[in-house]
Amino acid sequence: MYKVKIFGAGSIGNHLAHGCRNKGWHVTICDIDPAALERTKNEIYPQRYGSWDDEIRLARPEEVEQEQFDLIIIGTPPDSHMALACRSLENRPPRVLLIEKPLCTPSLEETERLLKLKEETGTFVAVGYNHTLTRHSVRAVELLSQDLIGGVITISAAFREYWGGIFGAHPWLAGPQDSYLGYWNRGGGAGGEHSHAVNIWQHFARLTGSGRIVEVSAMLDMVSDGTVDYDRLFLVNVKTDKGLVGSIIQDVVTEPPQKTARLQGEKGFLEWWVNWDGGHDSLRYSGKDGKVQEELFSKTRPDDFAGEIEHLGSILEGNVPEFSPISLEYGIETMLVVSAAYKSHQHGKRVKIHYEAGLGPEALEVE
Ligand SMILES: NC(=O)c1ccc[n+]([C@@H]2O[C@H](COP(=O)([O-])OP(=O)(O)OC[C@H]3O[C@@H](n4cnc5c(N)ncnc54)[C@H](O)[C@@H]3O)[C@@H](O)[C@H]2O)c1
Predict the structure, then answer these.
(1) Cα(192) to centroid(ligand 1), Å
(2) Which atom of ligand 1 is nearest to the CA of 13?
(3) Tens digits of residue pLDDT in 13-32
(4) How far does the centroid of ligand 1 lie from the alpha carbon of residue 215, in Å?
(5) Which residues lie closer than 8 Å to 27 by C-beta, 6 or more apart?
(6) Closest Cα to atom 5, ligand 1: which residue?
(7) Which residues are 286's β-sheet partners?
(8) Angle between helices 303-316 and 11-22 (to 10 degrees)
């Protein structure tokens, strides 16, 4: 059975520990904060999943630094991801490394170093955009591959969610000032926290041959009060190298939440919804007959991560896919757009992305 090490005994660390235990894998969770380890065992895990699982080992990071693992998961705040990822690959590279989203901060520090380490070690490196691998996302890909909607005219995506829910899941935080969430340059704010929207936009653009985003024009609503400094609204217009124009909205104010993407084609449309209602993701679509269909996919919160964990399990078994929607390169492309949006807002100008210049800050040009 595979050995898994998870950095971070917080919200995502518990979700992914639970998902890995469902596969029967050996799980070690490590955290620099002893109170977080205690909270995992006594509160988060039993409250979410019914009871604590004695098979899960809890440790300080230094206690397990020299142990070999098959899968390492980095579920810590975004501004710690790159250092932990690089150290994991330099020290004892696992076969698979999953880094939570957003991959890094908008400064795009060390993306090139991480890509190089990935090549040198042969480790499969993934970024946790789990919504690309849920059942309804797989079905959407199937429908699009059957040419349901014809040539794509535009794509829009929105992850709009008041972050009261996040603080509900983190009762030990009083508000955004207590974590990275309140700081855009640490990977918080709407741009980093809800970057699932940028990512799913790119996912559908990729799958429909609509191209890669090369131009970004953004307007943000910043909250800066001397303590916090984050974007509560992140509104972005984008254009691809194939000339397709679309829009992306992320915010931390919308209640009830709205998590959706929409592709308008020449023959029809496809809408993709996360949490359409309390127990379902959904798809709505029509083809050239104009008949609107709706498909519901029953789900629970653990199901949000089940497809991602299956995908990692398959890679651990040796089935490395030619196309992985959660590959490191795609995770970096998402951060390039997020970073370009902050630059665009700050300069009041469009920002171009030159992928040929590299997958770091050098790729961004303010017009
Ligand atoms: N894919 C998703 O849907 C999803 C959902 C929730 C969170 N996330 C992402 O997961 C990451 C963590 O979010 P969270 O809500 O779990 O945060 P959290 O604050 O609940 O937990 C983070 C934990 O990491 C620990 N930590 C910090 N530095 C560490 C280090 N160097 N080594 C070991 N532990 C360390 C902290 O002590 C803390 O306990 C973020 O990047 C967030 O965006 C993704």
Answers:
(1) 13
(2) 16
(3) 999 999 999 999 999 999 99
(4) 31
(5) 4, 6, 17, 20, 21, 55, 56, 57
(6) 12
(7) 269
(8) 60
